[in-house]
């Protein structure tokens, strides 16, 4: 207010003001202290507290006053509530998620690289000289980030938008928004809209703070309209020494590292990889021979999205479709720190991994790859694991999974290129057991060398798989495969080790436990394979062989085991450097292991601390053996896999050896134990032989019972699980193989039927069968948790005494006593002494105490019940109304938990098999047949993405899209003009047909896209799930205009198109009856017409009709009826729809394969307009359409003729005054003669006389003519008569003359 | 070629013909089958397979099917499934069940709901009858679809084995996605139902069958009701025959079925005695209960397929021992979809030693898998 006043005036004003308020000041009221010591004192004095709520004190104030108001407010709250609810989805985020992809995007010269390096420096305290490709860092205890800079090519902008979780959108504030910014935002919108954070740079260019503030505000609001109100916009105020200010970058980093993300649909359904490392594995020799040969390429990266299946096809945006040759997971190069209760990361945990920038040990140059060897010490290790970068190496060394000895046992050496790798065990075998060698040879003769070949050919993965199989078996056969020692042992051993870990007294470092665990797993796996087949054999063997022989068998076994194990596990990962040493150690261990009777198993058991437990276990095992022993031979027969597995049994001799050392102390104990075990085995074996005969029949029905299903299903393909295989076991030897082959052949052409024929022909006694399943019926026994009686008892437990209201009888709480006992038992802790003490304690308790206790217990029960009810009530949102949504949500929650828990404890290899490679794993993907340009023109600044394709997504078909031209794109789009589309993972050029749906669901072709409306586009392109968004650009080359031409969504996929185009056929009538007309010229043949019979036709004049029937001639003419009579000049047409073919043009953009300069300049198929413009072709004008000057003839009109009777009636003034013009000009000049009446009369009379005369003359003339005619007639008659007379006369004369002549002649003759 | 990456699967032999074509259709991968009965006296595909191919042709749009001259090898490039109404005369070599089993696998993934009319043999001794499919497969399908609204199998005419003359109408709704299913507790059998059918034989036959079934099954359960279905006139097909389909329903909604049909007229085995058939069918049902699980042996393969085609969530199902057909199905699923099932044996013996064992038949298997996230690509969304 003071601004307008001068300073003097202002002073005066103030003075007057103070004077006015002077007297008020003196009456200033007392202000109570609300805080501070004084207030506290007062509060302490006045202890009264209001116990009533305002509602209770003043209920009227809170009552409804207006129903409408309340209804409105209730509606509003409900509305808000409903808006918040989303369709629940299963949360599939993994426990250890992959790094968050943070993309730095912006137009050129905006400060992307600077920001990126600042951020990296902020997180890792390292400064990267040049950032190329993705940089992965650990930003916190639970989060890793992958930074990615997006260059200014539309291609990479599109690709980056598909993988980025968070986008830092850089905006040059001094310039404002640029096209690229909006283009990128639109790209993001289409591909799922990741989180976007704007960053304003170049704010130091503003000198004027006010202008700065205004610009900020303006930009912020524009940004908000584009994303959402309140979207985060960050300001980087200025540069210090070429870097952004530290605090600001730090704040930005904080924002990034706490940001939460919404799952995006496409990404949660498609696994993908952002490759952060690339290697060319092609044989250099091949490249030397042909520089353009196809390459084998390895791409590395974190799996993102969802589980990556090993056999899926992938699309590399910018390169094309490939099928994954091989995929395997590697140790995480940039792992999260171990769980510790520290708040921040220490220096060593701030890892950075960016191989493309040269941080991970590898530098990509234009024509070479440099590997950072990390000093002279690391050199040897580098040689061993060449393809692993230093960080990985360090990581693996930091937490080794196996002990050194272990590794050595598994390592191997390849002497010749194609030979099977040699392991220490092999050497050992060569040295020690010639007998063993013979066996393998014999095997080879039998045709079992296949096994060995498999191992030789197998890659590490397959071997891993084998191992997994074994592990899995272990899990499967937990208790039920009781028949074999090793198996159960393995399990128990596992339990026991777990116990060990849980015990605080177990003096093991974490590292050790890890390695032990791993070793244990291996061991188990091996054991299991063993158990599966060979052991069964063994067992059977034991049944029939004398005890003395039995002693030998385990030793042999362990021999086999050790040799095969090392062979099996080799894998080529480890290089054997010190074979000799290892061989030595191996022999040692071997010796030791052979000494022990049941080596493998017993040694593990020895770890146990409690002997009693051990005994218990063996007892149980023994009994189980008794029970099921008889089955073993059957299983064995059935599994034809047994012979295959023979070579596979992977024992663990080596481990035995190592363990032996540890457990030397307990050696004695163990031996004792072994002896006992042996006895037990003998006894049980004998018992089994006799006892189980009775059970056999019943067990035979369950012949599948103890089979290893995993092996049957996913084992070797050749193993056909058939009834026939039973017989095989009995024959054995050579016959087996031939028979199997026969089976196989039969198998491939077997009878295709879903019904299980194997169980049908089994004979089975109904009574026994009924007995075995009696508890399958509701009438049978129930499980304790389900049994009604047990549950009722439990209820009694819970609710205690009650009064029967009908009888008035009070039921005593009879359970109480028992409960007390139970409780005592819990308190008592000790086993047997507790029983002794109990009665005594009871007596000691006074009656009151007991009563008090009972009361307490009841109160406790009540409290629990109430808590349960509360929990339920809260969960359902206070009433039943929301229960549907809540139920749904909890269902999803449960599913998510199950998803996480199901495979959590499995071995990693096995888990990968079941789930695929889960997100967060670091994997190496090998691709074959990559074009050489991918390597030649590789540029790390372009993102390499491996997007997996789900089933059927790698096929091509017709795709219907809902499309809308982008409102900022300047031109409308023309049908059949090529368009570059980004859909799913792909970018491709295709030719769309635009159409719109008519009311009768017809897809009518459009020539151009509507200006502001959606239409349908049909393209020939990759099949992509419905609902996937896409965007289209006309060119990727940089243009000043907005490049995004259209956006939309996939509607429908099909293998045929239904787009139609209007086609009018015209004809003309050539004969017209009343309402029927014959029309020609519309069709060419009778057949054509008959196809259109009944079609409605229309004349140009609007008369509608129908085609009736073809006529013979002219060809193609037909009869038609109309609603009115046609004119001959009418044109008749029929409206038809002609199906339009979508051009089968699909051209994926292979930008990654181009040289760098060409990438952003790529131009595919050109539009027709472009081509014409370039070639200077003008469209040929239709001569009909060209303008012609119109010549109009002057028209001559007929004179107006007024009919006479009309003229007569007209009044004079309206009568035509114009005299009739005379034809003869001479006459016209004559003067009209007007006669006197007398003259007129005379003239009249004269005229009459004349007429009479004329008439008389006329008559006379006609009479005269008649007379003349009569006369003529008479004359003719007379004439005729005369001539007739003359004829007769002449005749006579001639006759006479003739006679005379004759006479003459006769005379002469005479 | 419509496929961009190398995608073809090749197989040998005629066995598991349907599985391969079904999975190829669902996964969109081409299939080449070679050496179909190449060593056989009568080489090449048989009539019923040819009929199956024709059915597939009707079901799909844009597929390419090539069979060589001798019929010993075929190539199949699948298209999409338009659905709609289909009529098919099935070959008389196999029952309608042979075709229906495949149709059930494909139907939920078509563009519009399928309305199929199939003609041929409704009941025979080889394939699951239409009754069995209705009683055993439909409950499973319902689990995965969510509801059984629009799911229908109507037997218009019944046709026994050699001559056929039966007609059924099959309707199935479509789904965009399937639900993951966890079904590992079948509960206990609470009732037994069944259908005793007879065509062109005395109506008394059905009653005789029912009596003999009751004589066996009454020992374990009282709640038994077997419907008699004696068809007459044009609805009874062209051949005489009779049979029995039994289903045991459990408290948790699992259905275990078993069935038997009489010998074909004029077969070497001679005529079947209804009482024997009833008894045998009852025995089969008991065996099926002995196998147990939440899915009976005839629908195992469908359950496995639908589990695999679910969302990327864990599905779990308890089954009895796997049938050879299912085993091969699992292998093929691995081949086509890359899904490996976790197969655990669940012993029927009590876990604790102190608890007494329940006699609940043989060991059960828990099949667990993560779905591939399959979506129905044919269905239109607007």
From TrEMBL, chain A:
Biased segments, Acidic residues type: 458-499, 586-599, 656-675, 801-830
Gene Ontology CC terms: 90S preribosome; nucleoplasm; small-subunit processome
Biased composition regions of type Basic and acidic residues, renumbered to the chain: 436-454, 575-585, 610-641, 745-755, 831-859, 1263-1286
Keyword ATP-binding assigned: yes
Biased composition, class Basic residues, residue ranges: 28-46
InterPro entries, alphabetized: AARP2CN (IPR012948), Bms1/Tsr1 (IPR039761), Bms1_N (IPR037875), BMS1_TSR1_C (IPR007034), G_Bms1/Tsr1_dom (IPR030387), P-loop_NTPase (IPR027417)
Alphabetical keyword list: ATP-binding, GTP-binding, Hydrolase, Nucleotide-binding, Nucleus, Phosphoprotein, Ribosome biogenesis
Pfam families cross-referenced by the UniProt entry: AARP2CN, RIBIOP_C
UniProt-annotated location(s): Nucleus, Nucleolus
Disordered: region residues: 21-57, 430-684, 740-760, 801-861, 1255-1286
Reactions accelerated catalytically: GTP + H2O = GDP + phosphate + H(+)
Boundaries of every Bms1-type G domain copy: 97-262
Entry keyword annotation includes Hydrolase: yes
Family to which the UniProt record says this protein belongs: Belongs to the TRAFAC class translation factor GTPase superfamily. Bms1-like GTPase family. BMS1 subfamily.
Protein name: Ribosome biogenesis protein BMS1 homolog isoform X1
Organism: Lingula anatina
Gene it is expressed from: LOC106175192
TrEMBL record, chain B:
Single GO term (MF): RNA endonuclease activity
One GO CC term, this protein: nucleolus
Main location: nucleus
Domain called RNA 3'-terminal phosphate cyclase insert: residue spans: 184-289
Compartments in which it is found: Nucleus, Nucleolus
Source organism, top-level taxon: Eukaryota
GO terms under biological process: endonucleolytic cleavage of tricistronic rRNA transcript (SSU-rRNA, 5.8S rRNA, LSU-rRNA)
Keywords, alphabetical: Nucleus, Ribosome biogenesis
Stored InterPro entries: RNA3'-term_phos_cycl_insert, RNA3'_phos_cyclase_dom, RNA3'_phos_cyclase_dom_sf, RNA3'_term_phos_cyc, RNA3'_term_phos_cyc_type_2, RNA3'_term_phos_cycl-like_CS, RNA3'P_cycl/enolpyr_Trfase_a/b, RPTC_insert
TM spans (from-to): none
The RNA 3'-terminal phosphate cyclase domain, residue ranges: 11-343
NCBIfam families xrefs: 18S_RNA_Rcl1p (TIGR03400)
Family from the record: Belongs to the RNA 3'-terminal cyclase family. Type 2 subfamily.
PANTHER family tied to this protein: RNA 3' TERMINAL PHOSPHATE CYCLASE, RNA 3'-TERMINAL PHOSPHATE CYCLASE-LIKE PROTEIN
Protein name: RNA 3'-terminal phosphate cyclase-like protein
Phylogenetic lineage: Eukaryota, Metazoa, Spiralia, Lophotrochozoa, Brachiopoda
